[in-house]
Design brief:
Elements (H helix, E strand, L loop, with lengths): L6 E5 L4 H12 L3 E6 L2 H9 L3 E4 L5 H14 L4 E6 L14 H22 L3 E10 L12 H20 L6 E7 L13 H14 L8 H12 L10 E4 L8
Parallel strand pairs: 1-2, 1-4, 2-3, 4-5, 5-6, 6-7
Helix pairs in contact: 1-7, 3-4, 4-5
Length: about 250
């Protein structure tokens, strides 16, 4: 019950890692609000008692409004901000377009940074920000340059933001998943393609399998909790050894 009497806002909490984190935070006593783009998923989570607000992190004004509404629903304060929303996609340098670049960076970098800015007036001093990064920012996967650049930029921004928020004792940390079995890699793919992709990813992870949403979410909860009170500015890889053992 590490989050008893704590308020948590998850940006991107309707599926995968974000939804897993929402359930874990609440199971440990937290009062949870979340955002997402799927109205059906939001309605389902609202029916379970979560404060669920529709917002696309690529829309800065809509996210700012959703954060203000979430803070009000949480009693006017946010103890933990989990910046999890993100988009992916592949395209080589030869195939890259401005539209694709702007779409990915508009959510993963620009949207994330402005979301944190919007949350600042509502964050409690002594609180925590956890950001979802990716080991994709560290490894050279052909076709992943746009996504990698956005996540690497977010990592750099997180370090600076962490330094800026030291006077308020707000810790800023990042959790970077490796290959994780979430819905994002299943979109627009056939069952056969999903199975082949899962097998391929499992083969490149030293531990021999993909991670689960809950495994990444548990790392995020640790960084958000008082157990990590002396941890600030790190990028925690939850990747089955993909970075560490190669």
């Amino acid at each position: 019950m590490r989050f008893t009497n704590k308020t948590i806002l998850i940006l991107g909490g309707t599926a995968g890692i974000g939804e897993a984190a929402a359930r874990l935070f609440r199971a440990e006593g937290g009062k949870v609000a979340l955002t997402g783009r799927s109205q059906a998923a939001l309605d389902a989570l609202a029916g379970e008692g979560f404060t669920a607000l529709k917002a696309d992190m690529g829309d800065i004004a809509a996210t700012r409004d959703a954060i203000a509404k979430a803070a009000a629903a949480l009693g006017g304060r946010i103890d933990v901000l989990f910046v999890n929303a993100g988009v992916g996609g592949f395209g080589t340098l030869a195939d890259m377009t401005e539209e694709f670049w702007d779409q990915v960076h508009g959510v993963n970098l620009k949207g994330a940074c402005f979301a944190m800015q919007s949350a600042l007036p509502h964050l409690n001093d002594g609180g925590a920000i956890v950001i979802t990064g990716s080991i994709g920012s560290m490894i050279a996967v052909p076709g992943n340059g746009v996504y990698a650049a956005a996540k690497a930029g977010l990592r750099a921004a997180a370090r600076v933001i962490g330094a800026e928020l030291l006077p308020r004792k707000i810790r800023v940390n990042m959790v970077s998943p490796g290959p994780t079995d979430t819905e994002i890699f299943k979109r627009d793919a056939s069952p056969e393609e999903i199975a082949a992709f899962r097998e391929m990813l499992s083969g490149v992870v030293p531990i021999g399998r993909m991670g689960t949403s809950e495994e990444v979410a548990r790392a995020a909860l640790f960084l958000a909790s008082d157990e990590a009170s002396f941890i600030n500015g790190i990028d925690l890889f939850v990747d089955g050894g993909s970075i560490e053992l190669k």
